[in-house]
Write a structure and sequence with these properties.
The protein is mainly α. It is about 70% helix and about 0% strand. α2 runs parallel beside α8.
């Protein structure tokens, strides 16, 4: 069949608004899971190392805050009426508290395993690392379809795309792959170290460090994500920038690496 009779070419894309709206209740469930887990942990606190109990409790609190703030921010993105160019960047920022929440809740279970199932602590730590690796990849995934949002008027779009980091479908897919590969280095390095038995024993200082870092990333990612949903008053849409993509993906990967190294 000749091209002129083959029908319209399908050039579908991922609508980040619908994805954010669908993810919001899933992410919120992490917080719901953390509350009863924290209660159970405190009722059995006298049966284990207090440092490990503090680490597990702190990680669960980080997971709860990260999931609640992340789910609200995702719901806000899902409520957007127009698919503007700023939304992929907003999703990448909001993905940081989501990944922090995921890694924290899995790491809390790994810490509990170190208390009650010490021979299986490496297995649970690896599970937490795999969760962080998956979260880092999904953070990078937002770049893949960031080429589509923006001005739809052909006369305006061509000039606008020339000023953007992502200017075409080909560039978006290429940069998405590069970002996913580069940002995965830290989680993979953490997993390799963990499998080789290289890690630090938790101390009070490291517990404070992990918890404070997790809280800071969760709050900062949510704040910057919500700020990024604001539309420019001059009408010039701001697509995702290179530094935004790499800073968000590397933040998720770095937190995963740090937790893997500091888990018991």
């Amino acid at each position: 069949m000749s091209p002129e009779h083959s029908g319209p070419v399908v050039t579908g894309h991922y609508d980040v608004r619908r994805g954010a709206a669908a993810y919001a209740p899933i992410v919120g469930s992490f917080g719901a899971l953390s509350v009863p887990a924290t209660i159970v942990l405190f009722t059995t606190a006298g049966s284990g190392d207090t440092t490990l109990v503090s680490l597990a409790a702190g990680l669960l609190v980080v997971a709860m805050i990260g999931s609640l703030t992340g789910s609200i921010a995702l719901a806000a993105i899902g409520a957007e009426v127009d698919e503007t160019a700023n939304l992929p960047a907003a999703v990448m920022f909001v993905a940081v508290p989501v990944v922090v929440s995921l890694v924290s809740v899995l790491s809390a279970f790994a810490t509990l395993a170190a208390i009650h199932l010490p021979t299986q602590k490496t297995l649970f730590a690896v599970i937490a690392g795999v969760g962080g690796l998956a979260g880092t990849y999904f953070t990078s995934f937002a770049v893949g379809d960031s080429w589509h949002p923006g001005p739809q008027d052909p006369a305006v779009r061509e000039e606008w795309q020339g000023r953007q980091w992502i200017s075409s479908r080909q560039a978006a897919y290429r940069q998405c792959g590069i970002l996913a590969a580069v940002s995965s280095v830290l989680p993979v390095a953490g997993l390799v170290l963990r499998l080789c038995g290289v890690h630090a024993e938790p101390t009070e200082a490291s517990v404070y460090g992990v918890v404070v870092t997790g809280l800071a990333l969760a709050v900062l990612g949510t704040f910057l994500g919500v700020q990024r949903t604001m539309h420019p008053l001059n009408g010039d849409q701001r697509g995702v920038r290179r530094y935004e993509a790499y800073s968000t993906a590397f933040s998720s990967g770095l937190y995963t690496f740090a937790v893997l190294v500091l888990l018991p």
